[in-house]
Design a protein that fits this description.
By secondary structure, this protein is mainly beta. It has one domain. 4% of the residues lie in helices and 44% in strands. The protein contains three helices and 26 strands. Strand 5 and strand 6 form a beta hairpin. It is globular. The protein starts with 12 loop residues before the first helix and ends in a 7-residue tail after the last strand.
Length: 400
């Protein structure tokens, strides 16, 4: 397990290998993975405790009130599951191949349609109170020693489980007042741990966990007008202009284990989100890829709401068949490591920006390229700030 904190002197694999020659002189952006903030974003949460009895996946969320005063929190699960066209109750992976979709949806004529649906809940934390819950289980009882006199959602005393199991998606939390409207206080800090638990008949239990820090967006004191339209870049600090990912190229042989290979997943979520009408936002994302010789490659693709991307699938078809032709693959780049700069491309839409947030997961596999030995998750470095504000629309206060 690795929990990476932002450090301007150390840069992911650069610090480990010392082989990156293109170390960017990135100025710190206005979102943080180390400081308390008013908005807390967990780009990836994953739950699957129903598909298999021997392989269980869940995400543990840790959230802390860093203030000595009680705080109120509104949170939103974003369920990014796809669903089968012939059976909407069956979840599926929209990025899967035709055979996998046909098997999951039990029909060779079925399609998997991407989805986006939010589930909101609220709770109250006492001064300096931390809480922890598993997304697949929720939290049945939450200590409420000083619930507001008005009652409402904050007196419910529970956190719901994921709206669907299995599920992959995002969790976003916002600090609010007793009336459930946003306030300009920065008191929330959190971490997420994705756990893969495998059991065998011996019996034996193997746990592989990977952690990352929640991404905090700080409120600007005196700028919040306390409505359900959160303006990221005016009421809150702006999202980063560029995300900087230092990584192994896919299928690179890990230097400390001569027969193990590395693959990476990039998860991106938009800074702009509509939780009120639940309208997904599509952003064209530009990728600039540099190898250790500073040779540059580029590609782009559209990202809609939540996107989990295997690096080698960004510019090739899903699956491993043509991964060797990807600009994110060691066979094309010729060096073990590289750097990818990720930027959401602005368009003519003036109702919201196209800022992005995300994390990276690194999977170390046996020489067969399939069996995962261990994994790690880490936060992404960033540079600059977006000039166009991003907008987060919340549903009306008091809606359960």
């Amino acid at each position: 397990m690795r929990k990476v904190k932002w450090n301007p002197l150390l840069s992911g694999v650069c610090a480990v290998l010392g082989g990156m020659l293109l170390w960017a002189s990135a100025a710190r952006a206005d979102v943080t993975s180390t400081n308390a903030a008013a908005i807390l974003v967990f780009p990836k949460v994953r739950v699957d405790t129903t598909t298999s009895t021997t392989h269980l996946i869940d995400t543990e969320i840790q959230l802390t009130n860093t203030s000595s005063n009680p705080v109120n929190v509104r949170c939103f699960y974003v369920n990014a599951n796809g669903h089968c066209s012939n059976a909407p109750s069956i979840s599926c992976d929209p990025s899967a191949t035709g055979v996998a979709i046909a098997t999951r949806c039990e029909s060779q004529f079925a399609a998997c349609f991407a989805g986006w649906q939010e589930t909101d809940f609220a709770f109250r934390l006492t001064g300096k109170q931390p809480i922890e819950w598993r997304v697949g289980e929720g939290l049945a009882t939450l200590p409420l020693n000083d619930a507001p006199s008005g009652g409402g959602q904050f007196n419910s005393g529970s956190i719901p489980p994921a709206p669907e199991n299995p599920m992959v998606g995002e969790l976003k939390c916002v600090e609010v007042g007793d009336d459930e409207l946003p306030i300009d206080s920065n008191d929330l800090k959190g971490e997420a741990t994705i756990e893969d638990i495998t059991t065998t008949a011996t019996p034996s239990v193997s746990v592989d966990s990977r952690s990352y820090n929640g991404i905090g967006i700080e409120a600007i004191t005196g700028q919040n007008n306390r409505d359900n339209t959160l303006v990221i870049g005016q009421e809150y600090n702006a999202c980063p202009a560029v995300l900087i990912v230092d990584h192994f190229f896919d299928d690179a042989v890990e230097p400390s284990a001569a027969h193990d290979t590395v693959r990476s997943d990039l998860t991106l979520v938009p800074c702009s989100e509509d939780f009120n009408f639940q309208q997904p936002i599509t952003t064209v994302v530009q990728f600039l890829v540099f190898n250790e010789f500073e040779q540059r490659f580029s590609t782009s693709r559209s990202v809609k709401c939540f996107s989990e991307l295997v690096l080698s699938d960004i510019d090739t078809r899903p699956g491993t068949t043509d991964d060797g032709a990807s600009i994110f693959n060691v066979n094309v780049e010729g060096t073990l490591t590289g750097q990818t700069q990720v930027r959401g491309v602005a368009d003519a839409d003036t109702t919201h920006g196209h800022g992005l947030l995300g994390i990276v997961e690194e999977f170390h596999r046996h020489s067969d390229g399939v069996t995962v030995i261990h994994s790690a998750a880490f936060n992404i470095h960033q540079r600059g700030t977006r000039t166009q504000p991003d907008i987060v629309l919340l549903p009306g206060a008091g809606v359960p």
